[in-house]
Design a protein that fits this description.
alpha+beta, 122 residues, single chain, four-stranded antiparallel β-sheet, rotamase, PPIase_PpiC_CS, PPIase_Pin1, peptidyl-prolyl cis-trans isomerase activity, PPIase_PpiC
């Protein structure tokens, strides 16, 4: 890798499912946090796994599922977070994104925000 690689940014979309352990227990689709407060991490993971399976099998498009199911406000953009560099995202999220090739989808990634699947887009 060249020295300039550290300056490189990646681009990614994600689907976030919040749960009881999430730092902020509210989202655009659950402003009161009622659903989030009653969602266990295990149930968030199994929801996300099911979405990931639908994407992998071609049954659904990542951006469509992100728009409907993601607890992140990026849902309005099909989960697109835009470009970011190192140090801008929570560490586990950053590491998972940089480890993916463009077009690849991560396994479940845990952060303080909740559980994610990440699609590297650039």
């Amino acid at each position: 890798m060249s020295a300039s690689a550290t300056a490189n940014q990646v681009r990614a979309s994600h689907i976030l499912i919040k749960h009881q352990g999430s730092r902020r227990k509210a989202s655009w689709k659950d402003p009161e946090g009622r659903v989030i407060m009653s969602t266990t991490r295990e149930s968030a993971v199994s929801q996300l796994q099911a979405l990931r399976d639908d994407i992998a099998s071609g049954k659904a498009k990542f951006e469509d599922l992100a728009s409907s199911f993601s607890d992140c406000s990026s849902a309005k953009r099909g989960g697109d977070l835009g470009p970011f560099g190192r140090g801008q995202m929570q560490k586990p999220f950053e590491e998972a994104t940089y480890a993916l090739k463009v077009g690849e989808i991560s396994d479940i990634v845990d952060t303080d925000s909740g559980v994610h699947i990440i699609l590297r887009t650039g």
